[in-house]
Write a structure and sequence with these properties.
This protein has 363 residues and is mainly alpha-helical. The chain contains twelve helices and three strands, in the order H-E-H-H-E-E-H-H-H-H-H-H-H-H-H. The protein has a three-stranded antiparallel β-sheet. A hairpin with a 3-residue loop joins strand 2 and strand 3. The longest helix has 24 residues. 43% of the residues are buried.
């Protein structure tokens, strides 16, 4: 279940409560669900009950309880809990994780090319908008470079190109005749690229928000303290897992990623750990992040999303090793974990491609 699907599910519960006169409120056009601010509060959260409390003339927790009862037992949702003054926290079932992995692997390079349920990115974002953003990007970065010898034009040129690519990801060319010309690549960008390499130069120009300074390292560092390297290494690790699994004679197959259940428990697998659900949330949110990066003209959103996805992958990998250990034979759980690792690699590669940064299979 993606954030957009969960949003529509919550919206249907509100509409049902209004139609059956449990609530007397205007039905909102859309409902926002997003990862909770703190771990341990489910996979997603929504403040819709707080928004409806005043027009309903009822306490927010009472409104939340009405919606909780309607949402309990919904396919794909394991638990719905009320937190604080009336927040709804959602924990998705393992079935939602399996369905997402299956979907990512089926779509492959197309996953993330369209916004989550809101139509093509290019319907709202074009190269004209990207070009219009360049002046503000240039002004924001002018005089705020902590090191290096490049001007704001270098950053503007890279941002322009990436926004055009993100817009074109929906299947429509990012620039047509009549649109303003994109900013030409300045000579100092070539100098920066020659010193740091293409991947590092692009990463340090795209990572800061428009109002933040660009920090240029003396040289690229090939270790996990470098966010760009960490993302590329996470992708390379997923590809290595697939190769190593093939050497062991098994392929990926979406399924339960929790450890096998104890004998006599009546279950095949234990529930997926929190690290798996955290990774699921990031993979499911990838299309929305691409859409937001284009709509808000903010490629740094995609950069930071890739960093979070890589970090979540490493945490999950430590909790749930995808490959058998020692003399252990491959089990169904290993095939399922390999599928989740493969789906993670797909998302990382797709995001890096949009940024114009390589996704090496070996590091």
């Amino acid at each position: 279940m993606t954030p957009a699907e969960l949003s529509r599910t919550v919206l249907r519960s509100v509409r049902g409560a209004v139609e059956e006169r449990e609530l007397s409120v205007p039905v909102p056009a859309r409902i926002v669900v997003q990862p909770p601010p703190r771990p341990g509060c489910g996979d997603y959260a929504s403040n819709i009950a707080l928004q409806l409390a005043k027009p309903a003339g009822r306490p927010a927790r009472e409104v939340a309880e009405i919606l909780r009862k309607r949402l309990a037992g919904t396919a794909g949702i394991d638990r719905v809990e009320i937190a604080g003054p009336g927040f709804l926290n959602f924990t998705l079932g393992d079935g939602a994780l399996v369905a997402l992995v299956r979907d990512v692997l089926a779509q492959g390079t197309a996953y993330g090319d369209r916004s989550a349920g809101n139509g093509p990115v290019a319907d709202r974002v074009s190269a004209a908008l990207a070009s219009a953003a360049l002046a503000s990007v240039g002004r924001a970065s002018a005089g705020r470079v902590s090191a290096g010898r490049f001007g704001p034009g270098a950053r503007a040129a890279v941002v322009s190109e990436v926004l055009e690519r993100i817009g074109a990801a929906a299947g429509r060319p990012g620039r047509t005749d009549g649109h303003p010309a994109l900013v030409p690549v300045p000579e100092d960008l070539a100098t920066l690229t020659a010193r740091l390499g293409t991947d590092e130069a692009r990463w340090i120009l795209l990572r800061p928000a428009a109002h933040d300074p660009v920090r240029v390292p003396e040289r690229p560092v090939q270790r996990e303290s470098n966010p760009r390297f960490r993302v590329q290494y996470a992708h390379a690790r997923t590809r290595a897992l697939v190769r190593n699994a093939a050497d062991l004679g098994f392929l990926s197959e979406p399924g339960g990623v929790g450890a096998p259940a104890a004998e006599g428990s009546g279950a095949e697998f234990r529930p997926a750990p929190a690290s798996a659900h955290a990774l699921h949330t990031l993979l499911a949110g990838h299309p929305s992040v691409v859409e937001a990066a284009a709509r808000l003209r903010a490629p740094d959103r995609l950069v930071r999303h890739l960093e979070a996805t890589a970090d979540a992958f490493f945490r999950w990998h430590d909790d749930c090793p995808p490959l058998p250990v020692g003399e252990q034979k491959p089990l169904a759980v290993h095939r399922a974990r390999l599928a989740l690792a493969e789906a993670t690699g797909t998302v990382l590669a797709n995001g890096l491609r949009l940024l114009g940064i390589s996704a090496p299979e070996h590091l």
